[in-house]
Amino acid sequence: MMEGKPAILGGTPILSTPLPAYNTIDYREKKVVMEVLDSGVLSDFYGSHSPRFLGGPKVRALEQCWQDYFNVPYAVSINSATSGLHAAVLAAGAGPGDEVIVPPYTMSATASSVLMANAVPVFADINDFNFCLDADSVARVISPRTKAVIAVNLFGGPADLDPLIELCRDNDLVLIEDNAQGPGGKYKERFLGTIGHMGVFSLNCHKVIQCGEGGIVVTRDEKLANRLRLIRNHGENVVEGMGVEEIENTLGYNYRLTELQAAVAIVQLEKLEELTRPRIEMAHRISERLQGRPELVLPLVGEQDHHVYYVYPFRFLPGCAGFSRDLFIRAVCAEGLPVANYVTPLYHLPVYRRQVCHGTGGCPMKCPWYKGRADYHSGTCPVVERLWREEFVCTDICRWPLGCREADIFVEGILKVLDAAEELQQLEGKVT
Ligand SMILES: *Cc1c(COP(=O)(O)O)cnc(C)c1O
């Protein structure tokens, strides 16, 4: 279909100039930041039982906007999604000796938040159509020590949450959605992050909407919301004044968002649809044009679901293409296009492999109070390992300020590489 020699074989790259940077900040954010600076109040939290325990006007306005937009009764702002996950794991009641089930294919904080709570992450496998937790695999690792499950809506699309909700209900577990990547995404017409007992959003500078660093935890449960607020802001000073009797896991951190960040986040939330639209349009165009290529398995999104394509993920079938996924990635990168594998399955990280970390009581997996046997060996989750080793590819090209032109260039680069299979096979022979 496409003529021309692939760049990896000495041809001309399809894209010769770097893509413009991801920068979604404009006059609207500048204006509100100046207002906060003019007010002189850059943060207005007090770590005591007082009205200021809940933060300043911008923080509270952001939480109100979040509640209204996502139609939830409680949104608790926090200084990152990592802090939000830690707070959610603590609010779920997990602690020494407990287990929390997590996927291995995700940003490391999904699992490290469990270690931060001195609990033990137990990895369950994902499925290869949405790259999210597989309920059957979760069911197999539930133990008497399991307290919670963290389902990640990876890449901006939904995990299959219904079977997970059912499992959690039947086993009395707390379901936490790590929705760092999916603000605005939907599962069966419901907003991601609002479906589990708690949902954690990220506002870091790489994400769909951002305020530099920040996060939000949403819940429908007043008790959980109060626990999250205590953990966010020096709960130890506040429980007495608030009359909290169950003080387990309410020791507080300083996980507070500033007024400056909250002001930016309010504007970014207003821009959410504006910022997800190019992602979705580009993704649809790429899928439409690559559909039918037998070497690729493109993202499959349920009819009632909504994917916001923080990342556009797909599978490359080496058996069908005639050359390896790694060579495919190298060849597409040589065309000037951003494709990559995703993270190593998290249980390969040294903290799990060697079981060395600095929880307050030592390493939770090795502590005398832990009676389970979390398994961090290679082979623990075969689907994720196959994807990571042989098939998975993703691109972050679907983003502001890019559009159809870049989507078309991306497609042409992919086709150029796929259509050069014979030459690439020879190259692979030489390399290996
Ligand atoms: C980015 C991300 C986080 C952490 O977010 P921060 O706000 O940077 O702490 C957690 N989980 C997932 C899936 C992420 O993508």
Brief characterization of the structure:
The chain is an alpha/beta fold. The chain has helices spanning 27-39, 57-70, 81-91, 109-116, 135-141, 161-171, 222-232, 239-242, 259-270, 272-290, 318-321, 325-334, 350-353, 382-391, 404-418, 421-431, and strands at 74-78, 99-102, 120-123, 146-152, 174-178, 186-187, 190-191, 198-202, 215-219, 296-297, 312-316, 392-395.
3D architecture notes:
The protein is built from 16 helices and twelve strands. α6 links the parallel β4 and β5 (174-178). The protein has helices spanning 27-39, 57-70, 81-91, 109-116, 135-141, 161-171, 222-232, 239-242, 259-270, 272-290, 318-321, 325-334, 350-353, 382-391, 404-418, 421-431, and strands at 74-78, 99-102, 120-123, 146-152, 174-178, 186-187, 190-191, 198-202, 215-219, 296-297, 312-316, 392-395. The chain is 38% helix and 12% strand. The mean pLDDT is 96. By secondary structure, it is α/β, with parallel strands linked by helices. α2 (57-70) runs parallel beside α9 and α3 packs across α7 (222-232). It binds pyridoxal-5'-phosphate (PLP).
